Target: Biotin synthase auxiliary protein
Amino acid sequence: MARAADNNDLLEALMTGAAPIYHPNTGQCISEGEEIRLSPSARAGLEAPRYCQICGRRMVVQVRPDGWDAVCSRHGRVDSAYLVQR
Ligand SMILES: [Zn+2]
Model:
């Protein structure tokens, strides 16, 4: 098993647009077929997710002037810099 620091599962899920299992803002389990409602700023990648969308764990989130990063102890770290499309 890879250590959390080497794990890119969450980043990969976000970058490939994989359907979240848990809501990134509320941590609620999303049932199949249910529509996910994100705030416009969250959808644009401007708002930091609070929960890991793969396991629903509360993430350690750090907001910076230029973005944010969020860490799930299981699924690794995501930085908003990776998600901003230019
Ligand atoms: Zn996770």
User: Anything to note?
Assistant: Residues 4-83 form one domain. The mean pLDDT is 85.
